């Protein structure tokens, strides 16, 4: 006989623990690195784009404000009068400083006549008298007297105050140019506007890529142009560094905003994450070794299987067989457990069959008690109808024949739409009986019409609602609502009767919860017991009532069960 060699249980458990611990950790590392790379690139792109969007909005506002202001000042009667008569300089200066003090980007203000003489200026114009560039600026304004000139140019004033952008407009009186108004924006203020805390480099350029303002001089090329070099991946090369660039043109202006952020921050993040993953991996390996030795002494796959099988059995799952192929005592335990489970299933099947037989007998006994109440009420209605209207009596007989044919049928469960046809016929008879003092409404959800329910389920509930609804009042409203909620089929019967006192409601609920009923009130009890026997303790009747507010009787059936015959 061949000798079977049993494996070392402790070593096997330790080895499996190492493998199963490292697999998810390795997957997590890969996912974490991938997420870090994608997230780093997205953050770099996002902060560069957001900086450009924010700066663009600010520069656009500055541009619009200066464009509107210079047009207003050029057409202002105060300015025209001052250029013509040299009177009213105080008001001209007042309007300029009032505007200028409100701006994020301050400016220098000039009014020049057609002979090049400075009539007004907010800065010493001495350096501009012989400035060839300023003379060309005046000439360009004069070429288009009806338009606003806006362009990049640089002028240096005292105290190292440089301007980098100019707005100019001709002052016209009686279709004749009498002077020029000029705003020159400070470069330092432009730099403050484009500086963003979360952005490395920002600049604004004109349509010729000439730099108007920048937060870093490394962007300036020949003739103050921004002409970046790109590598084969489209990254901008500046000062031996690689940058991500985003450019946004400001609509309606010759200005564009350019923002750049270095890839160094992204690379630093990768380095930091890699170092962290390496350190965490070493620490985790030491921890896994410690836990493997600790856990292998008391855990095993076989024990886990047995525990899991027992948990399934406790939850009612009788198909949780154990498959243990360890060639040790746990395999014997597993085989014995499977044999025990088969025997237990056989015993449960026998008990289930006996229980179903007892349930069918009891349900039939309870169901048979519905019919005397129903027939008595219908015949009472028919008796009154025969005396009043023969045609109506004929209608009642036809309806009654349908109801009797339906009620004596052999089926114990029917589709809800068929039972609701019976309910509507029954309510029609009752409405004839009470001469329109009975009103009813039926609301049935479309998805519930094809489900199966116990036959004649609502008839005794409706009968009770009519019977007790007329106590101390002459008119009754019956409302039937059928819908689904959280896996349950809900059938509600509401009336607007006098309702029940708290004590009476407690007594009725006590009767419903009793295993036997010795009182004369069997209608609700029979329905409740019928539902409990068919669907379990979670099903049955719930009554909500208070004096003066009517009564609501709600029947609950598991919706997933109601699709089958019961």
UniProtKB/TrEMBL annotation:
It comes from the Bacteria. It catalyses: ATP + protein L-histidine = ADP + protein N-phospho-L-histidine. It is a multi-pass membrane protein. Its EC number is 2.7.13.3. One of its GO terms (molecular function) is kinase activity. Residues 457-561 form the Histidine kinase domain. Residues 297-349 form the HAMP domain. It is found in: Cell membrane. Keywords: ATP-binding, Cell membrane, Coiled coil, Kinase, Membrane, Nucleotide-binding, Phosphoprotein, Transferase, Transmembrane, Transmembrane helix, Two-component regulatory system. Residues 337-364 form a coiled coil. Its main location: membrane. The chain crosses the membrane at residues 20-38, 268-288. It is an enzyme of class 2 (transferase). Pfam families: HATPase_c (PF02518), His_kinase (PF06580). This is histidine kinase.
């Amino acid at each position: 006989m061949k000798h079977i060699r049993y494996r070392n249980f402790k070593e096997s458990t330790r080895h499996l623990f190492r493998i199963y611990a490292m697999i998810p950790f390795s997957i997590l590392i890969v996912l974490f690195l991938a997420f870090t790379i994608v997230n780093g690139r997205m953050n770099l792109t996002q902060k560069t784009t957001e900086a450009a969007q924010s700066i663009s909005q600010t520069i656009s506002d500055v541009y619009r404000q200066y464009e509107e202001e210079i047009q207003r000042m050029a057409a202002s009667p105060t300015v025209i009068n001052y250029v013509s008569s040299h009177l009213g300089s105080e008001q001209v200066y007042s309007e300029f400083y009032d505007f200028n003090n409100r701006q994020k980007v301050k400016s220098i203000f000039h009014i020049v006549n057609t002979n090049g003489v400075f009539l007004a200026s907010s800065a010493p114009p001495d350096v501009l008298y012989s400035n060839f560039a300023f003379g060309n600026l005046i000439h360009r304004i004069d070429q288009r007297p009806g338009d606003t000139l806006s362009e990049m140019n640089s002028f240096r004033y005292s105290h190292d105050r440089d301007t980098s952008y100019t707005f100019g407009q001709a002052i016209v009186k009686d279709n004749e140019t009498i002077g020029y108004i000029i705003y020159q924006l400070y470069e330092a203020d432009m730099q403050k506007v484009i500086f963003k805390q979360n952005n490395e480099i920002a600049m604004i350029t004109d349509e010729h890529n000439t730099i108007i303002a920048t937060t870093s001089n490394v962007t300036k090329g020949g003739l103050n142009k921004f002409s970046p070099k790109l590598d084969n991946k489209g990254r901008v090369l500046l000062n031996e560094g690689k940058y991500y660039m985003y450019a946004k043109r400001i609509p309606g202006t010759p200005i564009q905003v350019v923002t750049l952020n270095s890839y160094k921050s992204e690379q630093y993040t990768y380095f930091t994450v890699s170092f962290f993953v390496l350190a965490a991996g070493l620490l985790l390996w030491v921890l896994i070794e410690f836990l493997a030795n600790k856990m292998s002494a008391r855990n095993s796959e076989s024990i886990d299987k047995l525990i899991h099988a027992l948990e399934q059995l406790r939850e009612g799952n009788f198909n949780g067989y154990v498959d243990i192929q360890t060639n040790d005592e746990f395999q014997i335990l597993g085989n014995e457990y499977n044999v025990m489970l088969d025997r237990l299933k056989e015993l449960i099947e026998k008990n289930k069959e006996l229980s179903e037989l007892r349930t069918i007998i009891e349900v039939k006994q309870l169901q048979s008690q519905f019919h005397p109440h129903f027939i008595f009420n219908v015949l009472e209605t028919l008796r009154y109808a025969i005396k009043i209207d023969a045609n109506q009596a004929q209608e009642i007989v036809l309806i009654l024949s349908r109801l009797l044919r339906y009620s004596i049928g052999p089926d114990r469960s029917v589709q809800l739409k068929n039972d609701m046809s019976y309910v509507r016929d029954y309510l029609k008879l009752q409405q004839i009986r009470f001469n329109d003092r009975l009103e009813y409404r039926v609301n049935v959800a479309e998805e519930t019409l094809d489900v199966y329910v116990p036959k004649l389920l609502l008839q005794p509930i409706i009968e009770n609602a009519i019977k007790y609804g007329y106590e101390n009042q002459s008119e009754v409203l019956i409302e039937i609502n059928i819908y689904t909620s959280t896996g349950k089929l809900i059938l509600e019967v509401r009336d607007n009767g006098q309702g029940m006192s708290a004590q009476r409601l407690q007594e009725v609920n006590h009767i419903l919860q009793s295993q036997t009923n010795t009182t004369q009130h069997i209608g609700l009890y029979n329905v409740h017991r019928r539902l409990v026997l068919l669907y379990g303790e979670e099903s049955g009747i719930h009554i909500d009532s208070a004096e003066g507010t009517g009564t609501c009787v709600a029947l609950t059936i598991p919706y997933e069960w109601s699709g089958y015959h019961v």
